Structure formats: structure tokens, C-alpha cells
Amino acid sequence: MELSTKIAIVVADDLALWQKMNVVAFLTTGVIAEADENLLGEPYLDASGRSYSPLCVQPIVVLKASREKLPTFLSRAERRGAKAAVYIEDMFATGHDAANRETVRRYATTDLPLVGLAVRTDRREVDKILKGAKLHD
Question: How far apart are CA 70 and CA 65, in angstroms?
Fold first, then answer.
């Protein structure tokens, strides 16, 4: 099935592995929650009849870039009308969702200490927004 949209997540390339994984997990939920349609498929069943939770029906590309490039990507997303999910450095030190939102609220857009962001929009638009990011290894 060919999808017209693309999900891409870009993380700062200097983060520790556990931080990158945390950022990707949180940003994935932001993109799925913001979708106009349900991005979750049907539950999975194994041969024994055990049921497992559904997964996202759309592939997710994980990219990396320097922290200095992340504000550029956010600016491009805004100019192209693509809503972004963001993760900032301060969120590593919080313990719950309300505290995460409060940390973001402290910064103007241009001052956000971004360590990751995610977008879902037209495939070509995602490529333009994240031009300069590299596939994560």
C-alpha cells in the first residue's frame, strides 16, 4: 500500500543511545495522536491465538542531525504548514507530562533547546523539511 504521507523523526546526533530511544518513542506518540485518521492497525494474533497490541500502519523514518540543524527543520515545518512534535533537552530531567509541557512553555520558538522533532505530512514535503538530516545508523 502506497501512502501519500510520511512520518520522519530526527534526533540530535550527540545524544546518548538511551536518550535517542526515549526521544523517538515520545515523538512517535505525538505524531500518531495528531493524525486526522487512525494510524493504528488491527491487533496482531499469533498461531496460539494470543492477541498483541496494534502497531502504526505507516513506516517511520528515523534520522539524525546536529542540534544546530533542528531549529531549521522546525522553521521549515512551520513555513510549510506541517505541525511538528518537539522534544527539548529539559524534558530529560522531568518526571511527568505536565512538567514536560511546562519546560517547553518557558522558551520562545527560536530559543527551544531542541534535541528531536517529528513531522507527518506529504512525502515530498517531509523530504524538503528535513533536507540535510541523515538516516540514523
Answer: 7
The enclosing H or E element of 127 equals: helix 123-129
Fold designation for 5-135 = Bit1 (3.40.1490)
pTM comes to 0.92
How far from 121 is each of 5, 82, 99, 118, 124, CA to CA, in Å? 5, 6, 28, 10, 8
Averaged pLDDT, groups of 10, the chain, 137 residues long? 86 97 96 87 96 94 98 98 97 94 97 98 95 94
Domain locations along the chain: 5-135
Query: By C-alpha distance, which of 127, 122, 136 is closest to 58?
Result: 122
Strands (E) located in the chain: 5-12, 44-45, 51-52, 60-65, 84-88, 114-122, 134-135
Q: Taking phi first (over 0 means left), then psi (-120 to 50 degrees means alpha), and beta for anything else, what does residue 49 get?
A: left
Cα separation, 113 vs 90, in Å, equals 8
- Helix and strand element counts for the chain (H, E): 4, 7
